Amino acid sequence: MTQGSSSVEGSSPTTKGKAWYVNPWVWAGIGGIVFVTLGRDCTRRIPNPPPVLGNAPSFALSELNGTAITDQTLAGNPYLVQIVGTDCGEDCEQTMAGMVKLHQGFEEGVLGKVPVKQLTFVMGGDESAKHYSVLADEHKVDRNRWYFVRGPDSIIAEVAKAYATMGDKTVDKPWMMGLALVDGAGRCRGLYGTDMMEINRAFFQAEQVSRESK
Predict the structure, then answer these.
(1) What's this model's pTM, rounded to 2 decimal places?
(2) Are residues 36 and 100 in the same domain?
(3) 15 within domain boundaries
């Protein structure tokens, strides 16, 4: 009886379960986790950079403070263009609100300042220039990164027309052009509307273009 009991309580090495590290299903699971983790970056879609639409129009005007500024002043720097006037009312206010958001985004980028400048062409007389100068002060705009430019309305209208033509459209008023993105080589890389979706698209593509310039 004693010997029989002993044989029942004892367990043969051949009847024990296999150790986990020799189980093929365990290693298959681990391998799957590693593959998914490492492969995620490889399979993530990186959008193509925005295409070149044409050469940005040249200009020789002056800032609201009287300092001369030309397209060559901005050479080597990507920048976003907008046009405002005295009789565009809410349309220009909406565009300006979008530009303010972009300016804040460029200043407070996750990886530091985004090296994209902004250029606002101001149409109209002294009263219009004063209005946008006060607005820039109210929003604490960095005037080394956002230029407010004035000059003959006819020249600014030609600039707007040149950008609009790149998008295969015509505009009744210069400020209807929306926004234009120019890269460091002076080429137009995008045209955008002024709603929030378009503002976000402009910000993302401006970041892409700024990385090209490094």
Answers:
(1) 0.76
(2) no
(3) yes
